[in-house]
Amino acid sequence: MRNVSIALLGCGTVGKGVIDLLAMNGPLIEEQLKTKITIKWVLIRDLQKYESMDLPEPIMLTTNFDDIINDDDVEIVVEVMGSADFAKECIEECFKRKKSVVSANKDLIADYGIPLLKLSQEHNADFQFEASVAGGIPIVRPMYSSLNSNIIEEIIGIMNGTTNYILSNMTEKGMSYEDALEEAKEKGYAEADPTNDVSGYDAARKIAILATLGFHSAVTFNDVTVEGIENITQEDIRHATEMGYVIKLLAIARQDDDGISLNVHPSFIRKGHPLANVGGAYNAVFVRGNCVGDVMMYGQGAGSLPTASAVVSDVMNVILHFNINITGQREFVWHEVKLKNQSSICAPYYLRMVVNNAPGVLAGISRVLADYNISIRSLLQKDETTEIAEIVILIDSSSDGLVKESLQKIESLSCVRKVANAIRVIEV
Amino acid sequence: MRNVSIALLGCGTVGKGVIDLLAMNGPLIEEQLKTKITIKWVLIRDLQKYESMDLPEPIMLTTNFDDIINDDDVEIVVEVMGSADFAKECIEECFKRKKSVVSANKDLIADYGIPLLKLSQEHNADFQFEASVAGGIPIVRPMYSSLNSNIIEEIIGIMNGTTNYILSNMTEKGMSYEDALEEAKEKGYAEADPTNDVSGYDAARKIAILATLGFHSAVTFNDVTVEGIENITQEDIRHATEMGYVIKLLAIARQDDDGISLNVHPSFIRKGHPLANVGGAYNAVFVRGNCVGDVMMYGQGAGSLPTASAVVSDVMNVILHFNINITGQREFVWHEVKLKNQSSICAPYYLRMVVNNAPGVLAGISRVLADYNISIRSLLQKDETTEIAEIVILIDSSSDGLVKESLQKIESLSCVRKVANAIRVIEV
Q1: Who among A21, A32, A296 is closest to B333 (CB)?
Q2: Any B CB within 8 A of A376 CB
Q3: Mean pLDDT score, A325-340
């Protein structure tokens, strides 16, 4: 049987998953490929840390990428390090030496995916990155090989397990944001510094990758307007529940004749919508094509073995391509990116305000909204104390720009203590 | 730009969808392929029926398959006729003439998929059939190209829109089976003779195809044990709702060390499970891999444009293969099929019985269950009239064989009028 030697760059959660998966499912994989996969090298940063690790034969650990790049045996390099710069250098080097690459690195793909694809093509090397979005869920390949007969109109994803875990706990167990974050840290769902997840950057990278493929447009992380979940409180969660909604951090990419919009923000989504039921650390990606209609892919968006499932599947595809002397490269089509002005993007909003419990407050607020031509769909006022009241308003679809301006005006009213939150309602 | 001429066999719902889709999305498709797709021929049965149809240039209608098979221009034949025998002959002829084939025909693929794949390989032709399962939902290709690093343990699908529409209406609108079926017919979701759908045969064909690919085992329609939804009543629906379940027609394929089981039957599934929320004419396929865990694909499992989305995507893949001089053929691996004995397959069951409203009835029934070592999880007795009572029992996981035997015994008790229904509870 033919043998293909591969090298792993990185041996964290995903790298270990790849080693474990190949140990578990090796026979079935080899049977399908008629080829044996051997992990020859694993690149790590600190040899001491791995001294006691029980690695299957014949894996060699190295801290020197040269050992890998100079080894002609190595045909496929699996990059599971995360972070963009060093990974990019390594991958470029691989392509130049005609080694194919499988990457699970969303930071890298979101920012350098297209230049790397082009470089790989120049050198006739393969480049696969299914695991860079939503872990084990098949979405990258289906986007370009199964939904490609469609004009993609919308991609909406719950693509960050950490924030979904936090929001699910806030909804189901009535936990505060702080307590839910703390529990997510304890259970290993959130990192010590959770900014990347809770601020929405992680989801933004993933939606940039999917929008690039779905819309045939080279968008990057910087094109995404991002809001995190840090300001969501129990009050918001409770109001959402009462009104028949669930709050989720959604990554939303839309395309119409006027251009593309890319947003990550917490959103009200009606109970009963398939995305509303995606709980805990699960991910889901909802795609609307002009012919296929709505499709959704659901599964574990992170974790050692689920992510390794996508990585090894990519490795298998590269080997199947080797075996018939091709690369899996497609001539991707990239249109010029026409981004919509963020301030023109419309949605209904939920607004929560803390106001003085005094006459005339509601008149003042509704006057401002009327001045901006924003119409009120429903309104709820609750007296919190004799001095303070809470006003919750659902407004009809209004532009981001107008809503922001009107809220500034409302906040400047003397009777308004603060606009506590403004959350978009996603009607899909 | 290169041109590829294709022919459609059939011009029903799906065939028309293919014509419409290519008219709508042609430019984007051609841009991706750097190839123009021209529908040259459409094979139909009755020329008169299509006389008034406004077909785009340069489509020619024919009732004679020879026109197509003898036309060397035609590189890809799209078979969207349905039914197995004539389609099979046509496709075999295509392969022998080195024409590639895209088929949406589940009857054909479920019964002859593997021999046809082999024939296509012998003649170096391409053979794609994404649309044969669950319409536009990407599932066939993801199964063999994205989940192939896993040992697939379980595939559970809601793969028949007609029955799902009927059951959803029975659940949400309290309709009787008969009324819900009538409405499904009126709305075009059910055919005049609905047997194929309501008896579960359609779902059985689809699960046979997915199990073949997922388990690397050449199973066919005949290996599936099938029960339809004809016996589901409002009583069953109401009891399910009260107990926190939803009734769905599930197609279930399972594989473990002891073998494979293939079943289609109505099932209790707990509310909150992603499959329980699949409503109306939507389909969903839930797959459990030993590494990826649970993934689910959801979308429209039928309909003109959704199904055409999968068909045209297949055509695009064939052309991309042409353009690099390959076929998309994989060396599929087929293990020997080891089917489990149906009577050994275990599940908890919901049992509904109509009994005489008399002392000792419950004692008699519970005695029989105890004799078969079947343990009762919960029990509900309702007096319907002074003479008749209804008994609903949830039993712990028990084998198909034992349950059948015990129910025969129970039905033979003089106090039992009938065992009205026995429905498996699916715990996933």
Answers
A1: A32
A2: no
A3: 85
